[in-house]
Design a protein that fits this description.
Blueprint: H1 16-21, H2 33-51, H3 57-70, H4 78-111, H5 123-140, H6 147-166, H7 170-190, H8 196-214
Length: 265
């Protein structure tokens, strides 16, 4: 069967039918079953050996793999690109599935924690953490979600924003900024009236210290690159004048017409 695929980079696209076409012609069917199996194995060995010879199916595929190691992505064969893309997509799907399981387990584990754990308001961390727990518990009473789940999501958002911001992810840094602003608002709303300013200021200082790591390398100063352009056009102004000169006058006509003569002394 002929290969109708269009050539790519000077080579035909691989087709598994080419390997089958390289099988030697099948001899007449033997009478015994054992001889038939031996003949099939002999034909397969012959096809395998012939496919590895120069110009064979497997020989050409091996040459394409060898050339892809030294060439660029655009010069690689189509079947190599397809295999790599399918393998990469499968790996991404597996990683996303595993990440989803990890996040689900983390949320479930954090949600199982009691909402009153460490919420007595004592200590520096309790001064900041207790108003957040109180605010989330009051809001959860009007929602179809447990207070522990809201508190677990709040913790997870802060953790991901801190780690992702340290790694330089822009989305994680935005989440970290929103996490800090929301935390300050919750602390100001739920803290006792007498110590509201102190609790909010303490939370702002703790968030600013943590932002040293979350916003590492972030600057508001514009970055100016003073690299000269690779191509600098040169302008050479020139003025071109095109003048038309009259034809020379014959020698006999220097004095003008015959009836006009210069004044002579």
């Amino acid at each position: 069967m002929p290969n109708n695929d269009k050539p790519l980079n000077g080579h035909d696209n691989p087709s598994f039918l080419d390997l089958l076409n390289q099988l030697p012609p099948q001899p007449p069917a033997p009478e015994l079953h054992g001889q038939h199996g031996t003949t099939q194995r002999a034909r397969l060995r012959a096809a395998w050996k012939e496919s590895w010879e120069e110009g064979g199916f497997l020989y050409q595929r091996w040459e394409e793999i060898f050339q892809a190691r030294r060439g660029s992505w655009h010069e690689a064969a189509t079947w190599i690109k397809t295999s790599l893309l399918l393998g990469g997509l499968s790996l991404i799907v597996l990683m996303l599935d595993a990440a989803g399981d990890v996040v689900s387990a983390a949320l479930k584990g954090l949600s199982d924690l009691p909402a009153t754990h460490g919420g007595d308001g004592s200590g520096l961390w309790g001064t900041v953490d207790h108003p957040v727990r109180v605010f989330l518990a009051d809001q959860a009473a009007h929602l179809s979600v447990a207070p522990a789940a809201l508190y677990a999501f709040w913790q997870l958002t802060g953790l991901l924003g801190l780690v992702g911001g340290f790694l330089g992810n822009a989305g994680a840094r935005i989440a970290w900024l929103l996490f800090g602003i929301g935390s300050l608002a919750m602390i100001w709303s739920a803290a006792p009236a007498g110590g509201r300013a102190a609790a909010t200021g303490l939370a702002a200082l703790m968030w600013a210290l943590a932002s040293i790591f979350a916003l590492r390398g972030l600057t508001l100063r514009p970055i100016v690159h003073n690299h000269p352009p690779q191509f600098q056009p040169q302008f050479n102004p020139a003025l071109h004048l095109h003048a038309t000169l009259p034809a020379p006058t014959p020698a006999g006509d220097d004095l003008g017409p015959d009836n006009i003569h210069p004044l002579q002394r």
